[in-house]
Design brief:
Belongs to the universal stress protein A family. The protein is α/β, with parallel strands linked by helices. The chain contains five helices and five strands; from the N terminus they run E-H-E-H-E-H-E-H-H-E. The chain has a single domain, classed as 3-Layer(aba) Sandwich (Rossmann fold).
């Protein structure tokens, strides 16, 4: 990856996949200061889970507690020492919409995100988060392919 350090705020959405991990490392190489990098994980809202799921004790789980656990997982997951200065956030909802909203709210200059490279029927059925972000974002979006 070409390294050019700029005073820009970059957002990397993560789903904790190896591709997203690499996007975080690539973005760390591009920012002048690691605190210019934001990493966002979008999780499904609790309302999307079946109420009758016996494996989940609903009254003990809050979105705040979920967000804290997700951030703890991220902090343990990314081993690069520069990652400790990264802003990490958790949102609940539809991934593309939450990524675009976060970027606008935080005046992000560029979004860098992996594409899982699905095509054909899988892409048609699952949709493409990267494609929806590219279409709706107010800023440039770099989509990294494997």
């Amino acid at each position: 990856m070409i390294s050019f350090k700029r005073q820009k705020k970059i957002l990397v959405p993560t789903d904790f996949s190896p591709q997203a991990d690499q996007a975080v490392i690539d973005a760390l190489d591009m920012v002048a200061d690691p605190s210019d990098l934001s990493v966002l994980h979008v999780a499904p809202p609790m309302s999307s889970y079946p109420v009758a799921d016996p494996a989940i004790v609903w009254e003990n789980i809050t979105e705040h507690a979920r967000a804290e656990r997700i951030e703890d997982s991220y902090r343990q997951h990314i081993k690069d020492p520069r990652a400790s200065a990264v802003h990490f956030a958790v949102r609940f909802g539809a991934p593309a919409e939450e990524v675009v909203d976060y970027a606008e709210e935080h005046k992000i200059d560029m979004i860098m995100m992996p594409s899982h490279g699905r095509s054909g029927l899988k892409r048609l059925l699952l949709g493409s988060v990267a494609e929806r972000v590219v279409r709706a974002a107010h800023c440039p979006v770099i989509v990294l392919r494997n």
